[in-house]
Write a structure and sequence with these properties.
It contains seven helices and 21 strands. The strands form six sheets. Strands 13-12-21-20-17-18 form a six-stranded antiparallel β-sheet, with no helix packed on it. It has a four-stranded antiparallel β-sheet with strand order 1-2-4-3, with helices on one face. The chain has three domains: about 60 residues, Phosphorylase Kinase, domain 1, CATH 3.30.200.20; about 190 residues, Orthogonal Bundle (Transferase(Phosphotransferase), domain 1); about 100 residues, Tumour Suppressor Smad4, CATH 2.60.200.20. It is an alpha+beta fold. Helix 4 packs antiparallel against helix 6.
């Protein structure tokens, strides 16, 4: 994708489609984008022109000011429920309009959503990049194999059969993206494609409520229906999905406990002159203010008298101590429900890098640590482990960081 200027001087986004000379199906899909020229929707980047130059096909579309949703997630990890509601409404409205035009996007992901406004409870976005869109019209093209990004591809894309993507295909990809928006974690954080494909095509679906706090149960049910294994088990269209989302946020949104307001401070009582009966003004009685108590002097300590040593209090606490690296000395307290740690900081655009490293859960007096597909893995000594169980004081290594499991910490 490039930024360019149209002959009229208007700034546009220019996408170059690298299509082989014998790939007539892909070439026809790009040329069919011309049907959207002149049609507009507030939540979709407008297609301005489709043309060919030096044997290459180009799509010129509206230049959207803002930043990629992926960049927003890398900075904030997750969205609030109010921001999630606004952004999902934009995406569902935009997808619904595309489906009415007979177009299936087929590559919904955070990299193809531009956030144009992120203020407080609002998160407004636009759908961009229709480079691999498919038109649902008579004589439509047959698609073989997996098309799009594997992390957001629907299960039917991995089945190896002739498939015909429809509105439910886009709804699945949007559901995976929505899961990541409310939890901060991809539902299938696997580094290799075989593990990813196995997880996507399995019968079970991950629960958002089990990963992050504050997510209504109704929203979790909505996400699982969006990501259903079979097309017939998903919502039929975007209008049905949007109505269900509105109902889930309206009925079961978590209500914060009321915070008692502090009582306003009492105004100071003025010293009012009291006039006695039968007396002149000069005989008024004015109360005197009470004297402030004198502070007690601290006992003097002789210089040669040694001060008692400060004793550090040791309290029971399930925690991880970081023993080296930039975060050396940090103590991470592990809650009862466990904790997931380790966002990748290098090249966040590369989806092969795991967004999480490991999950630690308390098991009576031990700690179970599960590798969640990190590149370096968990190391005990020189051996890589998929899962380890640690006793008090034992250590393990993740990447270049050594962590120690302790059942108490010093205050």
């Amino acid at each position: 994708m490039f930024a360019a200027a149209a002959p009229s001087g208007v700034r546009v986004a220019l996408k170059q489609n690298n299509i082989g000379p014998g790939d007539h199906e892909s070439r026809e899909r790009v040329l069919r984008q011309k049907c959207l020229i002149g049609r507009r929707h507030a939540a979709v980047a407008e297609i301005l022109e489709v043309f060919e130059s030096d044997g290459l096909l180009y799509i010129a579309m509206e230049f959207c000011k803002g930043e990629m949703l992926r960049t927003v997630l890398d900075r904030h990890s997750r969205l609030s429920l109010s921001q999630f509601r606004v952004l999902m409404t934009c995406c569902l409205d935009g997808l619904g309009w595309l489906h009415e035009q007979g177009v299936v996007h087929r590559d919904i992901k955070p990299e193809n959503i531009i956030v144009t406004d992120l203020t407080g409870a609002s998160c407004v976005g636009k759908i961009v990049d229709l480079g691999i869109a498919l038109h649902m019209a008579k004589g439509r093209l047959t698609v073989r194999g997996m098309v799009g990004t594997p992390f957001y591809a629907a299960p039917e894309a991995f089945l190896g059969k002739d498939i015909t993507p429809d509105a439910r295909t886009d709804l699945y990809s949007l559901g995976v993206m929505a899961f990541e928006l409310v939890t901060g974690i991809h539902p299938y954080p696997f580094g290799d494609e075989s593990s990813l494909m196995k997880a996507i095509c399995s019968e079970t679906r991950p629960s958002a409520c089990a990963i992050a706090k504050g997510i209504p149960v109704a929203v979790d049910i909505w996400l699982q229906k969006m990501m259903a294994l079979r097309q017939d088990d998903r919502y039929t269209n975007t209008r049905q999905a949007l109505a269900a989302l509105e109902a889930s946020l309206l009925d079961e949104a978590p209500v914060p406990s009321p915070v008692p307001k502090p009582a306003p401070p009492r105004p100071p009582v003025p010293y009012i002159p009291v006039l006695l009966d039968g007396c002149d003004d000069d005989d008024r009685i004015i109360p005197k203010p009470r004297p402030k108590p004198k502070p007690k002097p601290e006992p003097r300590r002789l210089e040669e008298e040694p001060r008692p040593p400060v004793k550090k209090e040791v309290v029971p606490c399930i925690c991880l101590n970081i023993l080296d690296g930039l975060a050396k000395g940090t103590v991470i307290t592990i809650p009862r429900q466990g904790i997931t740690l380790g966002r990748a900081e290098v090249n966040p655009e590369d989806r092969r890098i795991s967004s999480v490293h490991f999950r630690a859960r308390i098991r009576v007096d031990t700690l179970r640590v599960d590798d969640l597909g990190s590149i370096n893995g968990l190391l005990i000594g020189d051996k890589r482990k998929r899962r380890v169980t640690l006793a008090d004081g034992e250590r393990f290594v993740v990447g270049d960081t050594t962590l120690q499991f302790r059942k108490e910490k010093e205050l």
